[in-house]
Amino acid sequence: MTTTVTLAASMRGGTKDYGHGDAAVRALDGIDVDIATAEFTAIMGPSGSGKSTLLHTLAGLDRLTAGQSWIGETEISALSEDKITQVRRDKIGFVFQAFNLIPSLSAKENITLPLDISGRDIDPAWFDEIIGILGLGDRLTHLPAELSGGQQQRVAVARALVARPELIFADEPSGNLDSRSGAELLGFMRRAVKEFGQTIAMVTHDPTAASYSDRVLFLADGRIVDEMREPTADAVLDRMKQMGH
Ligand SMILES: Nc1ncnc2c1ncn2[C@@H]1O[C@H](COP(=O)(O)OP(=O)(O)OP(=O)(O)O)[C@@H](O)[C@H]1O
């Protein structure tokens, strides 16, 4: 029996240089990677190994110097900035450490902003489900400044999920949270993958956070040097130690 894996994102020969001459840094050095649909992928590696650069170039927030990358079937490395912006808006949700909530908008307005911007309707049942699972029902009229860090982060997750993006990119999503809120958030992300078929790619330094994923990619010096399926926190920690982290 053969099974076809659908790809939510991929990269071939991904190379990214910053700066010029003596100051030049090769942040990505010929990366080949596939992000399968309905899978939770964690990206780990020492500081400066290229994790954020990989996430940003996969998401079309930054351009490769050489090589190709795709979101679904669309080769974004071949598109103009305007077209990339459109692909990002239509297909991608972001959960970054700086929550990027708009201070003057309520939690609910922040959550529905991506749909409002792209002129799409809100699916009320889906909205209610996300809000229920994230426990934000009694916080929807609050401004971000009136919410705890954990609640703000959950608003950012709800905003990323509400448009049912094909792919969510997360950069240290639990980084600013206490361990209980972090575990809740990661548990929810895992549920979104298992129960709703959401695809998530997440950068993290934390072996426990990585253990919520289906697959960990290990980066070193801009290259993928290893991967691990069904990771446990201990196995990830051992691997990181071997890498001299
Ligand atoms: N805008 C930039 N200009 C110049 N160099 C950069 C830029 N962004 C990243 N770099 C360099 O590229 C390399 C990879 O950086 P990147 O942020 O992707 O690593 P990382 O693995 O995410 O690191 P960390 O875990 O510390 O966040 C580093 O050497 C970094 O100094």
How do you describe this structure in short?
It is built from eight helices and ten strands. It is of the alpha/beta class and 245 residues long.
Describe the structure.
This protein has 245 residues and is of the alpha/beta class. The protein has a single domain (39-49, 81-242), classed as P-loop containing nucleotide triphosphate hydrolases (Rossmann fold, 3-Layer(aba) Sandwich), CATH 3.40.50.300. 36% of the residues lie in helices and 26% in strands. The strands form 2 sheets. Strands 6-7-8-3-9-10 form a 6-stranded mixed beta sheet. A hairpin with a 6-residue loop joins strand 1 and strand 2 (25-36). The N and C termini lie far apart (40 Å). The mean pLDDT is 90. The structure holds adenosine-5'-triphosphate (ATP). Adenosine-5'-triphosphate is lined by residues 18-19, 25, 27, 45, 47-53.
